[in-house]
Specification:
Length: about 140
């Protein structure tokens, strides 16, 4: 980051503070996330740009000295596609020179959206019960 003493208040502030290569990488990642989950809302939490889906945290993104990252529980089944990247339970690290493939980001985000929908299904409001007409 260019100025680590200034704390960003929004995703745009955060991205503006990055070095050019990191800014380009996270701007591309941001577009990929929003393309995969167009109903996701951007917010700034835990000091990082984040995305919520249906009111629940979806993923975060951030930059460090030697890498950029996608944060959030990494869904099962992606080990083979993530070879060559540093991966932990909640982080996928990559470099601006070797970004995450757009198709991979799309698949991860869509799967995480599906997990949110399954865990917190939308409640459809019930129609009010019709009152029986009183007989006179």
């Amino acid at each position: 980051m260019r100025n680590p003493t200034k704390k960003p208040a929004s995703t745009d502030d955060y991205i503006a503070m990055l070095l050019d290569d990191q800014r380009k990488a996270l701007t591309a990642l941001r577009k990929q996330i929003l393309a995969a989950a167009p109903k996701a809302e951007e917010y700034f939490g835990y000091g990082l740009p984040g995305f919520k889906y249906k009111g629940h945290p979806l993923v975060y993104m951030g930059a460090a000295k030697k890498h950029v990252a996608l944060y959030g529980m990494v869904p099962a089944g992606f080990a083979e596609r993530l070879k060559g990247f540093t991966v932990s339970k909640g982080t996928i690290q990559f470099t601006p020179e070797k970004p995450l493939p757009a198709a991979l980001v799309k698949d991860i985000v869509k799967l995480k959206c599906a997990e949110i929908e399954e865990r917190w299904p939308s409640k459809t409001p019930k129609a009010p019960a019709k009152k029986a007409a009183k007989k006179k």
